[in-house]
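Dear colleague,

Thank you for sharing your sequence with our group. We've completed the structure prediction you requested, and as agreed, I am returning the results in plain text so they can be pasted directly into your records. Please verify that the sequence below matches your submission; if there's any discrepancy, let me know and we will rerun it promptly.
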Amino acid sequence: MAPATKADLSGASTQLALSASQKAAFDHDGYLIIPDFLDPTTTAALLNETHTLLRNFPLETHPLTKFTTGKDGGAHVGDDYFLESGDKIRFFFEEDAFNEKGDLIKPKERAINKIGHYLHELSEPFREATFTNQNASIARELGFRDPRVLQSMVICKQPEIGGKVSAHQDSSFLYTNPPSAVGFWIALEDATLENGCLSFAKGSHRRTPVKTRMVRQNGNTAFADVEGAHFPQRFDVQEQVVEKEHYTPGEVKAGSLVLIHGNLLHQSEKNLSPKGRIIYTFHLIDGCYEYDQGNWLQPPKGGFSQLYRAATLAQAVTS
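Please find the predicted structure tokens below.
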């Protein structure tokens, strides 16, 4: 069945909703790749905005905060620069951009791991690509009643030093009770095996509970046991222990969208190639569910951004 279409919004694809087969694939696998989601003009505009941000941020006043997920037993980044980034655009360095003495050994534009976490409100190109009818329609097809955009990031996966990201579940970082997070991951450059594309443990969202979550603790971050629900409500789940998950690579072309369920185990390898792998991602949670004060990321004064309302306003402006 062909997806519904409507007039283009902000240079985005005219696909408005998921087909029955796409929705079934997402429900079964926990992720869905949609090629050509953004047209080349929009993709280029977002890439250009990324390079502008990287070129213009001031190195002199930066605390040189490095980003690490902390899922391998090490400490997660947790300084004030990180914890207060929920309503700002901030820049986080690759660990390997520094030598043993702590000196930056890469040009700043080639040293950043990610930019976050409020691009969807403070950068016009990224805002226009986030709050669209097509994204709102996808959220509706996935069962969201009140989808909220709570964070957005550009992840650079820099040439030669782009860090490995170990297997993780996004709902561990963006926990609601019950879990509801879904990632919209958009390639702005080709993502390949050579430069560290994503890989996925198919179906792991239906068998792998979210057992820990990242919380604020004494001015830092830590992982705490989840006391609420471990699985989302919408899926038929059966908790299983898998000794070794099999990961399927997800090579994609620039402009592709990957939808990622918050319970799904996924990872990416280090980028040792001479090519970068810049992507834009934003995450939704359902505002109908509990999002408590223990979570590391706290809402800005006006609350997390409402996707349905903002998409409607964007359409009114462009009509």
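Summary note from our side: The mean pLDDT is 89.

Kind regards,
the structure core
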